[in-house]
Amino acid sequence: MPYERFAKYGAAALTNAELLAVILRTGTQGESATELARRVLSLHGNDNQSLSVLYGLTQTELSAIRGIGSVKATKLLCITEIVRRITKECRAKSPELSSPDDIAAYFMEEMRHDSREKIVLLCFDSRMKLVGQEILSVGTANMALLSPREVFVSAVRAGALRMVLIHNHPSGDPTPSREDIEITKQLDKLGEMMGIRLTDHIIIGDNCYTSMRQEKILEQADGTV
Question: Distance between CA atoms of 135 and 208, rounded to whole angstroms?
Fold first, then answer.
Protein backbone atom coordinates (compact mmCIF):
# COMPACT_ATOMS: atom_id res chain seq x y z
CA MET A 1 0.00 0.00 0.00
CA PRO A 2 1.35 3.47 -0.88
CA TYR A 3 0.66 4.93 2.57
CA GLU A 4 2.56 2.15 4.31
CA ARG A 5 5.49 2.43 1.90
CA PHE A 6 5.56 6.19 2.41
CA ALA A 7 5.59 5.81 6.22
CA LYS A 8 8.42 3.29 6.05
CA TYR A 9 10.62 4.58 3.21
CA GLY A 10 9.49 8.14 2.38
CA ALA A 11 7.99 9.70 -0.76
CA ALA A 12 11.13 9.18 -2.85
CA ALA A 13 10.63 5.39 -2.63
CA LEU A 14 7.17 5.48 -4.22
CA THR A 15 6.59 4.75 -7.88
CA ASN A 16 4.78 7.30 -10.05
CA ALA A 17 1.58 5.25 -9.80
CA GLU A 18 1.89 5.04 -6.01
CA LEU A 19 2.42 8.78 -5.69
CA LEU A 20 -0.67 9.39 -7.80
CA ALA A 21 -2.62 6.80 -5.77
CA VAL A 22 -1.97 8.81 -2.59
CA ILE A 23 -3.61 11.82 -4.27
CA LEU A 24 -6.54 9.77 -5.61
CA ARG A 25 -7.00 8.02 -2.21
CA THR A 26 -9.57 5.51 -3.49
CA GLY A 27 -9.98 3.28 -6.51
CA THR A 28 -13.11 1.69 -7.89
CA GLN A 29 -14.95 -1.54 -7.13
CA GLY A 30 -12.46 -4.36 -7.62
CA GLU A 31 -9.61 -1.93 -8.41
CA SER A 32 -7.16 -0.30 -5.98
CA ALA A 33 -6.13 3.35 -6.10
CA THR A 34 -2.73 2.27 -7.43
CA GLU A 35 -4.31 0.28 -10.26
CA LEU A 36 -6.51 3.26 -11.11
CA ALA A 37 -3.43 5.48 -11.10
CA ARG A 38 -1.70 3.12 -13.53
CA ARG A 39 -4.67 3.39 -15.89
CA VAL A 40 -4.48 7.18 -15.79
CA LEU A 41 -0.73 7.17 -16.41
CA SER A 42 -1.17 4.79 -19.37
CA LEU A 43 -3.33 7.26 -21.31
CA HIS A 44 -2.12 8.57 -24.68
CA GLY A 45 0.15 5.53 -25.10
CA ASN A 46 2.27 6.53 -22.11
CA ASP A 47 3.83 3.10 -21.67
CA ASN A 48 6.60 4.28 -19.34
CA GLN A 49 4.05 5.62 -16.81
CA SER A 50 5.56 9.11 -16.90
CA LEU A 51 3.80 11.71 -14.75
CA SER A 52 4.23 14.25 -17.56
CA VAL A 53 1.17 12.74 -19.28
CA LEU A 54 -0.94 14.69 -16.77
CA TYR A 55 0.03 17.96 -18.49
CA GLY A 56 -1.79 16.92 -21.64
CA LEU A 57 -5.05 15.79 -20.00
CA THR A 58 -8.16 17.96 -19.77
CA GLN A 59 -10.90 18.17 -17.14
CA THR A 60 -13.35 16.52 -19.54
CA GLU A 61 -10.96 13.72 -20.44
CA LEU A 62 -10.06 12.96 -16.82
CA SER A 63 -13.67 13.13 -15.59
CA ALA A 64 -14.70 10.55 -18.18
CA ILE A 65 -12.32 7.94 -16.73
CA ARG A 66 -14.10 5.31 -14.63
CA GLY A 67 -13.18 5.95 -11.01
CA ILE A 68 -11.99 9.55 -11.49
CA GLY A 69 -14.97 11.88 -11.84
CA SER A 70 -14.91 15.67 -11.57
CA VAL A 71 -13.52 15.97 -8.02
CA LYS A 72 -10.47 13.77 -8.60
CA ALA A 73 -9.96 15.33 -12.04
CA THR A 74 -9.84 18.77 -10.41
CA LYS A 75 -7.30 17.54 -7.85
CA LEU A 76 -5.02 16.12 -10.55
CA LEU A 77 -5.15 19.28 -12.65
CA CYS A 78 -4.40 21.42 -9.59
CA ILE A 79 -1.43 19.21 -8.72
CA THR A 80 0.03 19.63 -12.21
CA GLU A 81 -0.46 23.41 -11.99
CA ILE A 82 1.27 23.47 -8.58
CA VAL A 83 4.25 21.63 -10.07
CA ARG A 84 4.36 24.02 -13.01
CA ARG A 85 4.33 27.05 -10.71
CA ILE A 86 6.93 25.66 -8.32
CA THR A 87 9.24 25.02 -11.26
CA LYS A 88 8.79 28.54 -12.58
CA GLU A 89 9.14 30.18 -9.16
CA CYS A 90 12.38 28.33 -8.47
CA ARG A 91 13.79 29.59 -11.76
CA ALA A 92 12.43 33.09 -11.16
CA LYS A 93 14.60 33.54 -8.07
CA SER A 94 17.55 34.22 -10.36
CA PRO A 95 16.15 34.70 -13.88
CA GLU A 96 19.36 34.94 -15.88
CA LEU A 97 18.04 35.41 -19.40
CA SER A 98 21.28 36.29 -21.14
CA SER A 99 21.47 33.32 -23.52
CA PRO A 100 19.14 31.11 -25.58
CA ASP A 101 19.79 28.27 -23.10
CA ASP A 102 18.69 30.46 -20.19
CA ILE A 103 15.54 31.65 -21.94
CA ALA A 104 14.54 28.20 -23.17
CA ALA A 105 15.10 26.66 -19.73
CA TYR A 106 13.02 29.35 -18.05
CA PHE A 107 10.01 28.88 -20.34
CA MET A 108 10.34 25.14 -21.10
CA GLU A 109 7.98 23.74 -18.44
CA GLU A 110 5.48 26.53 -18.93
CA MET A 111 5.23 26.13 -22.72
CA ARG A 112 6.22 22.62 -23.77
CA HIS A 113 2.96 21.09 -22.51
CA ASP A 114 0.66 23.68 -24.10
CA SER A 115 -1.77 22.19 -26.61
CA ARG A 116 -1.96 25.51 -28.50
CA GLU A 117 0.74 27.72 -29.92
CA LYS A 118 1.53 30.70 -27.72
CA ILE A 119 3.75 33.66 -28.62
CA VAL A 120 5.56 35.56 -25.87
CA LEU A 121 7.53 38.78 -26.24
CA LEU A 122 10.46 39.55 -23.93
CA CYS A 123 11.61 43.17 -23.83
CA PHE A 124 15.13 44.15 -22.75
CA ASP A 125 17.12 47.32 -22.26
CA SER A 126 20.53 47.89 -23.87
CA ARG A 127 22.24 45.69 -21.25
CA MET A 128 19.79 42.82 -21.77
CA LYS A 129 17.99 43.47 -18.49
CA LEU A 130 14.38 42.30 -18.73
CA VAL A 131 12.00 45.29 -18.72
CA GLY A 132 8.81 43.65 -19.94
CA GLN A 133 7.10 40.37 -20.82
CA GLU A 134 3.82 39.93 -22.67
CA ILE A 135 1.78 37.13 -24.26
CA LEU A 136 1.07 38.40 -27.77
CA SER A 137 -1.05 35.59 -29.13
CA VAL A 138 -2.60 32.22 -28.28
CA GLY A 139 -3.63 30.22 -31.32
CA THR A 140 -4.49 26.68 -32.36
CA ALA A 141 -2.53 23.42 -32.19
CA ASN A 142 -0.40 24.43 -35.17
CA MET A 143 -0.74 28.18 -35.64
CA ALA A 144 -0.70 31.45 -33.72
CA LEU A 145 -1.22 34.77 -35.46
CA LEU A 146 1.40 37.45 -34.96
CA SER A 147 0.99 41.10 -35.88
CA PRO A 148 4.28 43.02 -36.37
CA ARG A 149 2.44 46.17 -35.28
CA GLU A 150 1.46 44.59 -31.94
CA VAL A 151 5.04 43.44 -31.40
CA PHE A 152 6.47 46.93 -31.73
CA VAL A 153 3.63 48.65 -29.87
CA SER A 154 4.37 46.35 -26.91
CA ALA A 155 8.13 46.85 -27.24
CA VAL A 156 7.82 50.66 -27.34
CA ARG A 157 5.42 50.60 -24.38
CA ALA A 158 8.01 48.66 -22.35
CA GLY A 159 10.82 51.02 -23.38
CA ALA A 160 12.71 48.15 -25.03
CA LEU A 161 15.85 48.48 -27.08
CA ARG A 162 16.09 44.74 -27.69
CA MET A 163 13.52 41.99 -27.82
CA VAL A 164 13.25 38.22 -27.98
CA LEU A 165 10.28 36.29 -29.34
CA ILE A 166 9.39 32.87 -27.93
CA HIS A 167 6.74 30.49 -29.13
CA ASN A 168 6.01 26.80 -28.70
CA HIS A 169 5.28 23.98 -31.13
CA PRO A 170 2.71 21.64 -29.53
CA SER A 171 3.98 18.86 -31.81
CA GLY A 172 7.17 18.85 -29.75
CA ASP A 173 9.36 19.51 -32.80
CA PRO A 174 10.97 22.98 -32.60
CA THR A 175 11.99 23.08 -36.27
CA PRO A 176 11.04 26.52 -37.66
CA SER A 177 8.30 26.56 -40.27
CA ARG A 178 8.52 28.68 -43.41
CA GLU A 179 6.11 31.13 -41.77
CA ASP A 180 8.29 31.27 -38.62
CA ILE A 181 11.32 32.18 -40.70
CA GLU A 182 9.49 34.77 -42.79
CA ILE A 183 8.01 36.65 -39.83
CA THR A 184 11.35 36.56 -38.02
CA LYS A 185 13.18 38.15 -40.95
CA GLN A 186 10.41 40.72 -41.35
CA LEU A 187 10.58 41.71 -37.67
CA ASP A 188 14.38 41.86 -37.85
CA LYS A 189 14.24 44.38 -40.72
CA LEU A 190 11.53 46.47 -39.03
CA GLY A 191 13.41 46.41 -35.74
CA GLU A 192 16.57 47.65 -37.39
CA MET A 193 14.68 50.63 -38.78
CA MET A 194 12.97 51.39 -35.45
CA GLY A 195 16.04 50.94 -33.27
CA ILE A 196 14.56 47.96 -31.41
CA ARG A 197 16.60 44.91 -32.40
CA LEU A 198 15.13 41.42 -32.54
CA THR A 199 17.91 39.60 -30.73
CA ASP A 200 16.48 36.09 -31.10
CA HIS A 201 13.38 34.04 -31.86
CA ILE A 202 13.26 30.85 -29.81
CA ILE A 203 10.93 27.95 -30.54
CA ILE A 204 10.10 25.64 -27.63
CA GLY A 205 9.61 21.94 -28.34
CA ASP A 206 9.32 18.97 -25.99
CA ASN A 207 12.44 19.32 -23.83
CA CYS A 208 14.27 20.87 -26.78
CA TYR A 209 14.37 24.20 -28.54
CA THR A 210 15.60 26.04 -31.63
CA SER A 211 17.27 29.44 -31.52
CA MET A 212 16.96 31.32 -34.80
CA ARG A 213 20.18 33.16 -34.04
CA GLN A 214 22.11 29.97 -33.27
CA GLU A 215 20.78 28.49 -36.52
CA LYS A 216 22.02 31.60 -38.40
CA ILE A 217 18.50 32.37 -39.57
CA LEU A 218 18.76 35.54 -37.55
CA GLU A 219 22.21 37.08 -37.21
CA GLN A 220 23.28 39.97 -35.01
CA ALA A 221 26.43 41.92 -35.63
CA ASP A 222 27.17 42.33 -31.92
CA GLY A 223 26.62 38.66 -31.10
CA THR A 224 24.43 39.42 -28.08
CA VAL A 225 22.51 36.46 -26.63
Answer: 21
